[in-house]
Amino acid sequence: MPEPTSAPRAQDGPISDAQIRERAYDIWERHHRPEGLEMQFWVMARRELTAEREAKVASDAPAAAGAGDAASL
Question: Does the predicted model carry a pTM greater than 0.85?
Fold first, then answer.
């Protein structure tokens, strides 16, 4: 039986405003710091973080399922 961990995993819970803010700032810098596009960069950041989280969950799911199959042999 695995021991529970106290630190939350990346895919647990909602994406925080701090995470979105940091990503939006990175996007803003990559686009040469234009003015007036704050909301667009915020939305882009949220979408990127959500997509990354969903991809991580999807890639972890087959590995976890496969590990359980090997244990039953």
Answer: no
Sequence-distant (≥ 6) Cβ neighbours of residue 23 within 8 angstroms = 45, 46, 48, 49
DSSP 2: P
d(CA 30, CA 70): 45
Asked if 20 contacts 47 with a C-beta cutoff of 8 angstroms, the reply is no
Q: Along the chain (73 residues), what's the average pLDDT of each consecutive run of 10 residues?
A: 46 88 98 97 98 92 64 54
Compute the distance between CA of residue 55 and CA of residue 60 in angstroms, rounded to an integer: 9
Distance between CA atoms of residues 20 and 48, nearest Å? 9
